[in-house]
Design goal:
By secondary structure, the protein is an alpha/beta fold. The chain folds into 2 domains: 2-95 and 203-216, Rossmann fold; 98-200, Rossmann fold (3-Layer(aba) Sandwich). It contains 8 helices and 8 strands, in the order E-H-E-H-E-H-E-H-E-H-E-H-E-H-E-H. Helix 1 (12-22) links the parallel strand 1 and strand 2 (33-37). This is Asp/Glu/hydantoin racemase. InterPro entries: Asp/Glu/hydantoin_racemase, Hydantoin_racemase-like, Iso_Racemase_Enz_sf.
Length: 219
Amino acid sequence: MTIYVINPNSSQFVTDGIDRAVDPMRSAAPVPIEARTLAEGPPGIETQAHVDGVVAPMLAHCAALEENASAFVVACYSDPGLAALREQSNHPVLGIAEASILTAMTLGQRFGIISILSTSIPRHMRYLGAMGVMDRLAGDHPLELGVAELADETRTFERLKSVGAHLRDTARADVAILGCAGMTAFRTELETHLGIPVVEPCQAATAMAIGRVALQKTR
């Protein structure tokens, strides 16, 4: 049995980053954790059309894994197909956006989201509204870098520091969320730089998945 962390885009560098981010959690997990790439996905999920387009292939991918699964993590900050996968699977299904927001609300009163692009923000606002947590949102500010551009770690970290400081100092966020699975490499350094908790969503969702699987083993 395995916790499958599904990257719904086709960029292997994103999946590799997810795998490194969850690696320290493997020793605490009651089952193996495997990060997987959805080959049918776009290089980055940056539009609503991208979000909608990956749902069917992701559901098919997860259906093929169902028999050996303990849990699924949807590792895209738009949580594509989350409700559909929960309906399809008999196992726990966690979305990294939902999990990161819930985690952030245990770490502070006002969370700020660092998005990749300004065009991502309307999707996030719809989701936050549906979750009923808009009153806890300090702000959602973009790096204005696409998924592929996040591979330039020096440039990305400089933008993260600038946007994170703005969320902290101007929007008064006391927790920051990295709003893309392509930002996994930066949590520790950014948290040290900003001096406030920084939530990496793949870690947040995987931690919840580990907890759910462990609870099932107590029955």
